[in-house]
């Protein structure tokens, strides 16, 4: 099934807009995993199994695996999600971007090697650099628009005529790059006003919204400013606040409680 169809099904059937980010940091793992040579996989699998019914997607961040030489664990983790929790899509957060001939390989890496359902992509090399991703109509292409970090002001707020650069990106993606209906945009939860502005420019194009939890984004403002008319349209992502809710043996149960609390907090504000 098409990535965005899968997400829409999760929004409706599982009644959740939560995306759990999988950012393994071995120094924060519980003591019970110490000495496990496959700890990255074991930790992430436990989180996945404890939260799968609560999410509309999982979002592994590739650097958190590659930095530990754990690309193999990432491959097995995504295979595990597909096998054990069918219908739960996986977004590979890789923020890729390069000239077209290289971008083809990034697309193959995301969709063939890792079997991700969607990938985050940097739009700043332009249309030809994104085309190998856009051509995969069954896969999601999630373009950086207004990122959650403070420094996103440096470039994304630049005036490019009658609007700011992130506003131009939002409109370009929604109007010109989304011919296959497989695009979404990243807007940080730390920018609630910009979230409303982007929503007003892009119709029902879905938004991946990182920045609640550890980065302090306000859930109510995110939902009210970013939702579509039917109370969906958002994949609200939290990593550290869920993954490291506890560093004891019950870490997976604690992660489940944190994900459930986020889901319920979101759902309180979904419908006007
Ligand atoms: O604008 C962006 C784009 C991506 N991210 C990624 O999301 C998670 C956030 O982790 P938290 O622990 O929930 O803060 C992380 O993987 C980032 O690389 C983002 O934060 N902002």
UniProtKB/TrEMBL annotation:
Pfam families per UniProt: OMPdecase
SMART domains assigned to the protein according to its UniProt record, in alphabetical order: OMPdecase
InterPro entries in the record: Aldolase_TIM, OMPdecase_AS, OMPdecase_type-2, OMPdeCOase_dom, RibuloseP-bd_barrel
This protein's name: Orotidine 5'-phosphate decarboxylase
Keywords: Decarboxylase, Lyase, Pyrimidine biosynthesis
Source organism of this protein record: Dokdonella fugitiva
GO molecular function terms attached to this record: orotidine-5'-phosphate decarboxylase activity
Reactions the enzyme catalyzes: orotidine 5'-phosphate + H(+) = UMP + CO2
Active site per the UniProt annotation: 95 (proton donor)
Cross-referenced HAMAP family: OMPdecase_type2 (MF_01215)
